[in-house]
Amino acid sequence: MIYKLKPFVDAAIASKYFSFIVTVLLFLILYGIGMASYQGFMKPQVFLNLFIDNAALIVVTVGITFTLLTGGIDLSVGSVVALSCMMIAYMLQYTAIPVVIVIGIVLLMGIILGGVQGYLITKFNMQPFIVTLAGMFFARGMTAVISRETVSITNPTYTAIASERISVFGLGFISIGVVIAIMVLIIATILLKYTKFGRTVFAVGGNEHSAALMGLPTFKTKIMVYVISGFCAALGGVVYSWIMLSGYTLHGVGMEMDAVASSVIGGTLLTGGVGFLPGTLFGVLIQGIILTFITFQGTLSAWWTKIVVGALLCLFIIMQALITEKKGKISSKQSVTAKK
Amino acid sequence: MEKLNKLTSHSLFLPLFALSILLFFNAVFVKDFFLIEMTDDGRLYGRLVDILNRSSSLIILSLGMTFVIATSGIDISVGSIIAISSAVCCTMLGGAGNGTAANPFIIAMGCAVLAGVLAGSWNGLLVSKFKIQPVVATLILMTAGRGIAQLLTEGQIITVYYKPFSYIGGTIPGSMLPTTIFIALAMVLLVYIVNKKTSVGLFIQSVGINPTASRFTGIKVNHVIFLVYAFSGFCAGVSGLIEGSLIRAADANNAGLNMEMDAILAVALGGTLLSGGKFNIGGSVIGAITIQTLTTTMYAFGVASDQLPVIKAIVVVILCLVQSEQFRVIWSNWKNKNKSIKNQTEHVPTVTHNLLQDKTVLEQQGGNKA
């Protein structure tokens, strides 16, 4: 029996979507356990709340996944979220700039910050980790330079957008942030899967030298990836500010780690070149569900989330390492049989 | 001119230069910067003593970080390990208000350092055995570490009233200088002797330059990498004791926060390349002192602690930029161009220049084709 199953298991492991399948299964199992243990999990609104609470993280994770796919990393996203919130709060409270332009300025800030980081990394061959770590400190420090105190947002237009609720088939409601998050996810998936740029991202992540020798625009692509990450972080900051309605220096602390963890749990290989964006959505939702568990349980503190997420991250990374090894073996076996 | 070139190319030039600029700046703008006075009970105090005192935990951290970076790795979990170590020590001593300790002091200290070594070994295991990239492997502990520290302290800040605990971060009665300086000095000496008298330093350097070649020459690469991370954990454990003792409490959220950045900065400033290979212990120590001097100077000028990262970030980027090979090529090209205009003679590019230029041209061509 086991012998017969083996080809199927091998095929499943060798499949591109193996990590994705594992993640979705894990999510369903966790949700099943939730439904079995707590009555409240049955409500559709609990499911929709996962999206409402994590809309910002979804947007940020989509951005960071682009950098991870090229084999880089962007640690500055959490701080950029804080800086965006603070800029929005400050401009709305102390200047008369209209809401749309405020959001435009913030998004432009994200693009510029990402562009500068991408340029430094690509042009001067600096390690992405160091550059974005500096970016992280820069953005966090700039937030404190703007204001060290909490600045709350009381602009009527802005609060109206924040509290807008859209009904979903009469089962529950979602916020505008969720709509944006889903849109970003869909656009990014299409961008990665069906455009020249998307395929170049994967090629650069797989092997940068080969990609360059094939005549692919590696230089431009690598900068573009950080621009996208910066843009998504700023957009995530806008969505985040709709939840927090304030600017504060400690907003989004540790968000970069959550985003990387979500992306990895969702099947992105940290060495670059492999990843599937819808998986990252489930990576975020799994983190959300752990937090929901802790809220429902009532006695556990929120820092348990950190430990569980750390353990999950570790598990998935080791699983990736093992899969990569296994895949190598399977493909070499296949090539041997093909030769025969 | 040749002498100047020789001087600037010395490995300790950059950290010493940065430090002396800062000291000069302080001497001009900060009143009584170099003044060291003695209190009635025979203790020295002054800004310089204070800087050394505050920088000692960073010095210890950067020792471990130097070795890790020399193997072309990185350890971003040290801040969290500090939190774990100080949580272990404070929990074992207990927060009894009458100043008694729940466990003997030596055992509590030992356990705290052991916790650091264990955490470091975990990192080492992931990097050497499972072949996970260092950034990612240490990211796990960075995320989960503070959670573990919270778990140990049960989410509270444990304040220790046991008197000897405060001696680590303060002064032992009768001593002239803060204890931290002696601890840092002992650690630096230990590392220096091990580096000079054994071949460990050479092995680390060799692994950093080329792990495959090192394996073929018979170096146990995995063991070296494992040891390096365990040692970094050990250093973080000792720093955790100091950090805990300075505030006489275990604060799982803030102990050692952002110190990994400072440690990396100290190593980079000390002239160790972040891509691994050749390392410089003395440079890292001076780098750590420089960073603390920068911090103290900025505080003296009224820059808030949460605004300071802006300056540090800019310093890091400039440092890495100067270290980067591409930048050097562009810089020397620019310099040569100026010279050739001046002398009306063409400069003869070296072979390495040509190779690097070819590479840049290739990349740019790749960029233009799209």
Architecture of the largest domain in chain B in CATH? Answer: Orthogonal Bundle
Rg of chain A, nearest Å: 21 Å
Largest interface: A-B, 52 and 54 residues
Distance between the termini of chain B: 46 Å
Mean pLDDT of chain A: 86
Fraction of residues in helix of chain A: over 70%
The CA-CA distance between the termini of chain A, in Å, is 27 Å
Tell me the quaternary state.
heterodimer
Low-confidence stretches of chain B: 345-358, 366-370
What composes the largest sheet of chain A?
2 strands, antiparallel
Helix content, binned percent of chain B = over 70%
Element order of chain A: H for helix, E for strand: HHHHHHEHEEHHHHEHHH
Structural features, described:
The complex is a heterodimer of chains A (340) and B (370). Chain A has 340 residues and is mainly α. Helices cover 77% and strands 4% of the residues of chain A. Chain A is built from 14 helices and 4 strands. In chain A, helix 5 (99-123) packs antiparallel against helix 11 (218-244), helix 8 runs antiparallel to helix 11 (218-244) and helix 12 (255-265) packs across helix 13. Chain A is globular. Chain B is mostly helical and 370 residues long. Chain B has 2 domains: 45-312, ABC transporter involved in vitamin B12 uptake, BtuC, CATH 1.10.3470; 326-369, no CATH class. Helix content of chain B is 71%, strand content 3%. The interface between A and B is large, with 52 and 54 residues.
SSE layout and pairing:
The complex is a heterodimer of chains A (340) and B (370).
Chain A: H1 2-14, H2 18-37, H3 44-69, H4 77-94, H5 99-123, H6 128-146, E1 151-152, H7 156-163, E2 165-168, E3 172-175, H8 176-194, H9 196-206, H10 208-213, H11 218-244, E4 246-247, H12 255-265, H13 277-297, H14 303-339
Antiparallel strand pairs in A: 1-4, 2-3
Chain B: H1 2-9, H2 13-29, E1 36-38, E2 44-46, H3 47-70, H4 78-93, H5 105-128, H6 134-153, E3 158-159, H7 163-169, H8 179-197, H9 200-209, H10 211-216, H11 221-247, E4 249-250, H12 259-269, H13 281-300, H14 308-323, H15 325-343, H16 351-369
Antiparallel strand pairs in B: 1-2, 3-4
Helix pairs in contact in B: 2-13, 3-8, 3-11, 3-12, 3-13, 4-5, 4-6, 4-11, 5-6, 5-11, 7-11, 9-11, 12-13, 12-14
